[in-house]
Amino acid sequence: MNKLFTPHDLAGLQLPNRLVMAPMTRSRAANGVADVLTARYYSQRASAGLIISEGINVSQQGIGYLFTPGLYTQDQVDAWRCVTDAVHAEGGRIYAQLWHAGRISHNSLLMDGEVPVSSVARPACGARAYAWITSSVPGQIITSEPRALETAEVASIVDDFVAAGQRAMEAGFDGVEVHAANGYLFDQFINGELNTREDRYGGTIENRLRLLLETIDGLSQAIGAQHVGVRISPFGRQHDLQPFDDEPQTWLALADELGLRELAYVHLSDQQAIDADCEDDFLVNFRRAYPGTLIVAGGFDQASGESALQSGKADLIGFGTPFIANPDLVERMAHGWPLAQADRKTLYGLHGARGYTDYPRYIEQTVAAPPKQLMTRASFSADALDRESEQASEAEARSTLTSVVDDFFSAWSDAEWQALAPSLAKTATLQSSQHGEGRGLDDWRRLLSTDTSALLWLRTSNHSIVIGRNGQAAASCYVYGLFGRGRQRLLYGASVVLRFRHHETNGHWILTSAHINVNWCRGDLALAAHWRMSPSDSGWELGDAPPVIVSELDSPWALIRDALPQSDAEVAVRELYSKYSWAIDQGDIALLSDCYTDDAAGGFAPMGPLQGRHAIVGQLKSFRRHWPWMQHFADVVRLKLEPDRRHAQMIVARIIPEQPVDAHGHALYGAHYQIRARLEDDGQWRICWTDYRPGWFTNADVPAFDIGITHA
Ligand SMILES: Cc1cc2nc3c(=O)[nH]c(=O)nc-3n(C[C@H](O)[C@H](O)[C@H](O)COP(=O)(O)O)c2cc1C
Question: How far does residue 602's CA lie from ligand 1's centre (Å)?
């Protein structure tokens, strides 16, 4: 009988199958805090028997790689709560991997003046950390020279793990895994060739295992041994670990010790499976010494995983890389569907959704595959698509359209046209209030490249995409950019609408038009001498060129009438803010009315509290008249669905283009909205409560949810 798809009782946690998503660092947490993409990434993979999170830093001292998340601040706990809620809402289970990188780190990642710590003051030869090469450039860099932890300091490492374990449980994880594998801090103590300490943490096997066992015991006492697992990589040679004399005895002694503790599991990063320096019968001996649940990971495919289960070598199989490109790995393996390959370029780093949450499920891919003609224009008719395939089509189309939108902005800001060219219709029209009008790639390149010589940066926000059943789609967003030459500066803000057509035969989305309207600019107008006209905050006057190229008629919600419902509730809620901002900034009162529920209420500083859609819309209409060119630039910085999935909470942070970052490079915001949204019976998300709160903060100290409390 096939074992991979049979259930397993993990110390009381019922796993529906034996596929474990192995821990994988993705370096996507810009400030060490998980975000909505993290929640989406893990919840997409919730059909795994168990998810083990990426390595999570237990302290600032333990950080080894940039943009890795932590569990040492309340913000981090709150953010992980959104992730675990999302995974549980999809029926999944998730453990947090707790991590201290020890000497595999770099001074630039640590507090001022700190250096990495380890068992001894010996650097890892040739090892690299992902850290700051200069104060603003991240990259791979040789690890810094560590210092040896004082004997008395070792207890604080245990404390950090215990505190992080408690926070993990507070954040809703089902348990924690101590990361004692791959050459990080615990391995640096266990390895007898490296650890030449002469205190109670070095020398004998017992001493070298002490730090790990004290940590496990501390955690077991704090959160229960049934919630504690541990990952080790016996015979691992990662990060300059060398063979040592009593190596097999050390690992088997550890197996004995762990066996006494009734832990949730031991997770072996199986060096044999990845052809490393390991004794042939080691796994069998380890299994004999450790009677509890054993996970093995490393180089497994379905056949070798099944065979490891059948032979009794392991109880659960950890799959790493296969989960990256196959969010539905369990379903693919269960049905014998082919696996997608991960794009190695986006394994790590701040690539947003790319290579993270945009890998489709097999079922979506099949619906989207051009050879089957399922994504042709005709198939966008309501008859052809049932709800599930509509969702799949929407998700697939959205992912493609997002890439083309990105390509458009790379072309505009960096003169990088190669990626966009295949998606641009031969007769695509460009209409811009500032750049003029043109048709086709050469015109677009000529008109927009007039900006590039003086452009210091160009950023986008307030994105939305609406996809129609008729094979048409539209995307809108805001742009703010800075021109500079010498000491001159000019800041400007624009609205952009891109329109797309789905190609009937080849299944691609083609960009057919771009409308750009620069709404305002401030600074030295000489820098915009190439523009057809310079907008200003004083508004249009008789004799000026027609100013409005983007109006409410160009909003995606006006252009695309018979829209597919958004496949992802979080995207829908996020785009509710884009819709609201577009409506108020364009004075589109009908669209604005559609953003609120009838019974909406909340605080509208500086006007005060308002009750009911009627009062809100009337008041906002009067309010906006004073700022005809205003653009509500913003980022959604927190978002979570409530358990009923019909309500959502969101914090939207107002970007102030004059000061988008602070002195440390953190995104800076001048105010925020607390918003609660409700999914109404017509399938639309609307704001049912909101409170606007002026006050500066950065993305390193985002306000907590405070829903239902009106300050205004
Ligand atoms: C992108 C990536 C990140 C990883 N990060 C971690 C990590 O944070 N913690 C850890 O214990 N192992 C980490 N690993 C190792 C994996 O958990 C796994 O052991 C390894 O990929 C081998 O399994 P596979 O052949 O199924 O991919 C990582 C692997 C990859 C590919």
Answer: 46
Give the span between the Cα atoms of 368 and 31, in whole angstroms. Answer: 35
**For residue 636, is pLDDT > 60?**
yes
Instruction: Considering the chain, tell me which residue range(s) the CATH 3.10.450.50 domain(s) occupy.
Output: 360-567
Q: Are 674 and 693 in contact (CB under 8 A)?
A: yes
Neighbours of 609 (CB within 10 A): 14
- Write the ipTM: 0.99
Encoded tokens for 320: 């790493």
Provide the CATH number for the domain formed by 8-346 in this structure. 3.20.20.70
CB-ligand 1 contact for 24 (6 Å cutoff): yes
Rounded Cα distance, 424 and 691, in Å: 41
293 C-beta neighbours (distance < 10 Å), count: 19
For 344, residues 6+ apart whose C-beta sits below 8 A from its C-beta are: none
Residues 6 or more apart from 618 whose CB is under 8 A from it?
none
Write the pLDDT tens digit of every residue in 54-91: 999 999 999 999 999 999 999 999 999 999 999 999 99
Residue of minimum CA distance from atom 2 in ligand 1? 24
Instruction: Map tokens 């010790």 to a residue.
Output: 257
Domain with CATH 3.20.20.70 in the chain: 8-346
Whether 319 lines ligand 1, by a CB cut-off of 6 Å, is yes
54 within ligand 1 shell (Cβ under 6 A): yes
Q: What are phi and psi of 605, to 5 degrees?
A: -55, 140
User: Do the beta carbons of residue 359 and residue 398 sit within 8 Å?
Assistant: no
Instruction: Please indicate whether residue 596 is annotated as part of the active site.
Output: no
CATH number of 360-567: 3.10.450.50
Mean pLDDT of 369-374: 36
Catalytic residue (choose from 184, 356, 492, 580): 184
